[in-house]
Amino acid sequence: MAVTPTLAEFIAGFPTDRIPLPALDVATRAILDTLGVALAGSVEPPATLTAQLAPNLSDGAALWGQNRHTTPAYAALVNGAAAHALDYDDVQHSLRGHPSAPVVPALFAVAETTGRSGRDVLAAYVIADEVAGRLGAAIGASHYIAGWHNTSTLGALAAAAGCARLLGLGPEGTRRALGIAASMASGLKKNFGTMTKPLHAGLAARVGVEAATLASLDFTADDSSLDGPLGFLAIYSAGGAIKAEALTEDLGERWQVLDPGIAVKVYPCCAETHRALDAIFLLLAAEPFRPEEVEAVEALVSPVGTPLIHTSPKTGLEGKFSIEYCLAAAILDRQINLATFTDEMVNRPEVRALMARVKRVWYDSLPVGSGLQDDLHSGVDVPLVKVYLKDGRVLSRRVEEPRGDPKNPVSWEELVAKFRDCAGRALTPGAVDRLVALVRELPNLTDLREVSALLAGSSTPVRETTR
User: Fold this and answer.
1) pLDDT mean across residues, the chain
2) Cα angle vertex 60, ends 56, 64, to 5°?
3) Are 403 and 266 spatial neighbours (Cβ–Cβ below 8 Å)?
4) Whole-model pTM?
5) Residue 326 CB-density burial (10 A; 0-12 exposed, 13-18 middle, 19+ buried)
6) Lower CB count within 10 Å: N or C terminus of the chain?
7) Measured between alpha carbons, how far is residue 36 from residues 190, 222, 456, 465 in Å?
8) If you ran DSSP here, which 8-state letter would residue 190 be given?
9) Confidence of residue 466 (pLDDT cuts 50, 70, 90)
């Protein structure tokens, strides 16, 4: 059975009023978090350099934090790159990647230029995330293991789905949008640790806008682009097993935003380091050892498809994908934050000396993209981190779910605190406060004019009305 038509019918036609309120609440949280990390990333080179390509318009879609407007496609590109620039954006286990960075910028670019409501955006986000998570489940781990970056490849189709819904394309137009996006999807893990990794999210966001816009102009594409031996799933699965039925089973009954949910990052680095970082901080709280007391540190890492591709990073971006650096910095600084990942911090002599004592233990049965989750839940008593001290003590700790995981969630207040810390890099305190209030009221906003103006950094925002 072809799954593309069924999925397109769902994207285009599922009634907003049948989306569960808890799903819309998760979408609200995800949008707040994504806007925050994007504003923080708007001052970083992946965003500022990409913005040099964007034409200036007196009207249009906002370039977040840059007090400029441009075309929807370029806004999606730049804001998507900003959202992923610091690797502080949310993750989803079924996607094996970042669901919001490619989707939220695309949806905002379309919504603010077409006058769609906050509730429309929330519904489109839930639908887009449904596509992202189900694509991840359908295409399997082989796609990621082969070297594709799911955030970019699968995120492009998810963004196209959300934009198609906002543009009201209907099932046929949505099938065309998915077909166009399928031929535009790209992104290689080889570029992790460089500016091109966050560019992946921007490219996926731009693909979403462009594919849906072209489809709205009756641009043609194969109407079953996901199916068959030449379809997206077969080609991009890299020879692995495909579960095409995962795209359509229980559509509208089981929601990806609720199961497996969306994990908020509490550290601005690769999600595969977060369990180990939590373990280190728990050990430091229980027995506050000093860096000079450490003989060695062992951390479990999967040898299969790991994104932790840098063992001796030289830049802040590379450090985000190095378990060695992240754990050494945590022990040395007693914290991991945005300031951790600069070139200067990575190249400190004291951190490099400690980093050399952090060793990977390859653990063959680690499931890709989910750390120790399955083994821990099956009762395997395997420490995630061991710290060997020079006095002979051995400290060990395992963490089942990192802070921010749907099973160990952060509160709304903690999420707002993260947003304030991030958004404050680009906006005034007053603008930050107002954005928090507006995002909380997204279900009631009739349009995004004031949100857009605040995100751009305008000093004279246009207020929208609520209903």
Assistant:
1) 93
2) 75
3) yes
4) 0.91
5) buried
6) N
7) 27, 37, 13, 23
8) G
9) very low
